[in-house]
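Data availability (excerpt). All sequences and predicted C-alpha cell strings are deposited with the supplementary files. A representative entry, Transcriptional regulator, AraC family, is shown inline so that the format can be inspected without opening the archive.
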Amino acid sequence: MKITLNFSDLQDMTMEHAFPDNYHYLGEPIVERTTSLECFGGTGSYREIFFEGVHIAYGDLRLKQQTILNFESDFETVEMHFDLSGNTLTNISGSNRMRYEFNSNHHNIIYVPGIKGNLHFNTMSTQVLEINLSIPLFKKFIADTEIFTNFIQEINQQNPAMLGRHNMPITPAMVSLIRSMLDCKKEGMYKRMYLEAKVVELLLLQLEQFAFHDCNSFCSLKPADMEKMHHARDIIFTRANEVHSLRRLALEIGTNEFTLKKGFKEVFGTTVFGMLSDLKMEEAKRLLSEGEKSISEISEYAGYKNCTHFTTAFKKKYGVTPGKYKVEL
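C-alpha cell line:
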C-alpha cells in the first residue's frame, strides 16, 4: 500500500509514502510518526497514527503561495475527512472522474479506490484531519443501513464517491472529539483503545448528521445567504466570547436578525445560541478533563454567573455533574 506524491512546480521531486497492510504494523498495538514538510518556502507537519483498520492523519501546512500536489495511490480506503481550516480542491482523473472541494470547518465521508489526481491548496494555511478506515471495518458499521445503500454500492463497484451530496458543518461535539484525539497522552494498547472509541464516536456523529439532514431546507438558501451563515458560524467558533446578541452578529455578516435566525437553523440544525452553548459546554468539558481550573472558574467561562445553574446544565447535557465528571477521569 503506497501513495506517490509530487508538486506540480517540482516534478523532479517525487515522494513515496508507504502504508502497512490494513494500516497495521504486526506486533505493534499502535504506531505513530510525524513528517516535517517544507515546500515553496512554506512549512508544516504531517502526523500519523496507525492501528488495525485505522489510519489517523493530521496535516498542518503553511504556504507562501497556492500549491498543487499530484498524487497516485494503489489501495482503496474510506476517509472521514475534516477540513479544519483553509480551502482545498481535489480532482480525480481517469475513467471515474470526480471533483470535490472543502471549505474551512466542513466534513464528509469519501470512498476512493486506487486513484490518480491532484490536490489544490487554495489558501496559505491549511489544517486537515483524515481518518482512513479499511473497507471491512467501515462496512461493519453501515452495511445494513438503508439510507447509505447507494454509497455501499459505489464501494462495491469501486467507484469514487462521497457519502453526502453536501459537505456538512463540523459541530462543537466533533471539535471536542478531534481535540481529545490529537491531545491524547495515553500510550500503547490504552491509546489504541481510546482512539478506537473516539473514531467510532466521531463516525457516529457524521452518520447521524447525514441521516437527519434536511436537504430541501439546506438547498433552498441562496448561495450568498449560505455564505453568510457559514461566516456567522466561523465567528461563533473563533470569537465565542464576543457573541452577545443576534442583532450585532447579523450586522457583522451583512443580513438581518430574521434571516440569520431562519437560515442558521436550516443550515446547522440548531440556533445561534444553541451552537454557542454547545461550544462552551464542550470547552468546559475539556477544561474539566485538564484539571487545571476550578469548577467555578469553568462555570464563569461558560457564561454562568451562578455555578449551580452551570452544574444543572452540564448534567442535563452529559448526564453527570461537573464534580463527578472530574472525579471519574
